[in-house]
Fold this sequence. Notes:
The chain is mostly helical. The chain has a single domain (32-116), classed as DNAb Helicase, Chain A (Orthogonal Bundle), CATH 1.10.860. The chain is built from five helices and no strands. It has helices at residues 25-38, 41-44, 56-70, 77-86, 95-116.
Amino acid sequence: xxxxxxxxxxxxxxxxxxxxxxxxxxxxxxxxxxxxxxxxxxxxxxxxxxxxxxxxxxxxxxxxxxxxxxxxxxxxxxxxxxxxxxxxxxxxxxxxxxxxxxxxxxxxxxxxxxxxx
Length: 117
């Protein structure tokens, strides 16, 4: 008898099997805050996708940054807010206040990390 060739096991996406993927909202916020504050989208554009963010709010903000990046526009709190407004999503993500909080939290975290070194 011939031995059947086994197919390699496919790593299943947690969403495919009804599991909630691991998430950390604080890290998501820090990543988005850095992107907005430092105009650093070019550093992560090939690594991250909107679907990787757990919250819909963060997915929308990331997509707005991607839209700006693809149009070769700067990415900052003002342009992100305007893009979200154009997309009809600014209030859905918490408005300009939430965008400013992302950058403020990140600036504080970075400053505190530098102080502890």
